[in-house]
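Residues pack. Consider this:
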Amino acid sequence: MVAGSIMDLLELDIRSEDSMAITMTVNGEAHALDVEPEMPLLWALRETLGLTGTKFGCGISACGACTVLMDGRAVRSCTLPMSAANGKTVTTIEGLAQDGALNKLHRVQQAWIAHQVPQCGYCQSGVIMAVAGLLAQIPKPTDDEIDAGITNICRCGTFARMRAAIHDAAEGEGVRS
């Protein structure tokens, strides 16, 4: 037998008498979710909305695989309670491309492809979201600002390619010749 979701595996009931309506906009679409206020945003995105591009890594906000944008700023969704997302705008990796179209990828996604950044790829959605958030705050970051702003962990060690891709995305190029 193949289990459907992590909630099925853990036999968790995501609805209880403590549930409340949480309203938020995810990838441009308004949602009203009846969930417990302490439920992590990550699980609402993955299990309730079916947006599985955001990954579970550590569960303690250390690795960054769960990074999404909330009101334009990078946040770790694995420990962020739904109550903190109420009334907010959330962008996941699925919503980063313009109009969700593959031919209109975000400049960070374009740079990632051009520099062949991913190896295994597991952490990449979180890193890409963190970079998009950094560039929204600091359009042309220095190496020190990248180091301070991108604290995601990549076990494959593609940090040199990430840094080159970040600089190209900051230039709006996607590709450095």
User: Anything to note?
Assistant: The helical segments are 6-10, 41-48, 82-85, 93-96, 107-114, 124-137, 143-149, 159-171. DSSP finds eight helices and five strands in the chain. The domain at 101-171 is CATH 1.10.150.120 (DNA polymerase; domain 1).
